[in-house]
Amino acid sequence: AQKITQTQPGMFVQEKEAVTLDCTYDTSDQSYGLFWYKQPSSGEMIFLIYQGSYDEQNATEGRYSLNFQKARKSANLVISASQLGDSAMYFCAMREALKGGADGLTFGKGTHLIIQP
Amino acid sequence: DAGVIQSPRHEVTEMGQEVTLRCKPISGHDYLFWYRQTMMRGLELLIYFNNNVPIDDSGMPEDRFSAKMPNASFSTLKIQPSEPRDSAVYFCASSPPGRTQETQYFGPGTRLLVL
User: Fold this and answer.
1) A with B: how many residue pairs have Cβ under 8 Å apart?
2) Nearest CA of chain B to the CA of A48: how many Å?
């Protein structure tokens, strides 16, 4: 079974500093994908970034980048120049093959990030 | 695009009552997923549809749970009878054709409280 581990239940970071949220994964598949989602206090799940296992370059989306280290099976999310609005829960997820050919998501437990002014 | 729409946003009901959660996926998306989020178990996939057909319902916890997708723009998740342990946030998500590998767009969720 696939597994996602997020070892930081909570983090406090000063505004404008860079943040790294850790994620390690366990899979025997050669082809897989990793996702990060943000869940603010309002509750919605916001897709941030995706990294495929065969992508040679780390994914980037604006202030978000994914530090993908395949040999270590880690996919850390880096947020540059943090803002107060970045305060939220952050979930790492892995694509899992489902019966019928589609892909679902297996989520980690999440990291609660709080940005302090 | 309006994004994935879910209703109601909040639902409070008494044990034993029937609960119906609704979802409208993003137009053109042919995959629809139902997830449940609890403190104890995190986010779990319950069921997914492809072109309105239920494909994998192995995550549905019990026979009290059922899901339908009568057309491409509407799906329901029904709990009958509801129990306090069903209290959770229920998310609907959708993906474009052939792109379930890359992204799933989530709705705002329905917060269900069963008393």
Assistant:
1) 66
2) 10
Indicate the length of chain B as a whole number.
115
Pairing verdict, β A88-97 and A74-79: unpaired
The minimal CB distance from A100 to the residues B42, B56, B109 is found for: B56
Closest to B48 (Cα-Cα) out of B110, B115, B100, B114: B100
Q: What percent of chain A has pLDDT over 90?
A: 73
- From A25's Cα to the closest Cα of chain B, the distance in A is 16
Rounded Cα distance, A49 and A41, in Å: 20
Residue B99 has pLDDT above 70, yes or no: no
Instruction: Write the pLDDT tens digit of every residue in A32-85.
Output: 889 999 999 988 899 899 999 888 899 999 999 999 999 999 999 999 999 999
